[in-house]
Amino acid sequence: MRSDKALRAELVKFLSTEAHMSLADAVKDFPLKDMNVRPPNVPYTFWHLLEHIRIAQSDIVDFIKNPHYEHLGWPKDYWPAKDAKATKKDWDHTLATYQRDLRAIIAIVKNPKTDLHARIPHGDGQTILREAILIVDHTSYHVGEFAILRQVVNNWK
Predict the structure, then answer these.
(1) Distance in angstroms (rounded) separating the CA atoms of residues 3 and 37
(2) pLDDT: which is higher, 1 or 5
(3) 88-110 helix and 128-152 helix, angle to the nearest 10 degrees
(4) What is the mean pLDDT of residues 137-146?
(5) Rounded to whole angstroms, how far apart are CA atoms 27 and 136?
(6) How far is 92 from 70, CA to CA, in rounded Å?
């Protein structure tokens, strides 16, 4: 059987940097006074966007690990309420929980006992490889969006 060592290393690299820019780099020096700002023509705030990234990643990790996984409702359960306002505590919790779940998916991918290609038993054809790539793709997309929106509202130094 061929080793997945190189594949695992690439997945970890992409997960750690979200393929282009890490979430840590995107939020670095973010002015917290702007966490509840809605950029022009955008229906959500900066915190809403981060919370969406966190919820989606957490949901995928739960799906992988939990044989009793229950699907979230789309789109309602993947975004905070439109009128939800974050505090610094909420912002910090979102980032900390995101990092916790990121460490969890990285540990799964790094584990040589994890069969990246096997179907997840309680799924309908998904594999851990697919779910890890989904996290990379989804997070990268929204991290790029977050960075662009920072430029739009001119809070990027």
Answers:
(1) 47
(2) 5
(3) 150
(4) 95
(5) 17
(6) 26
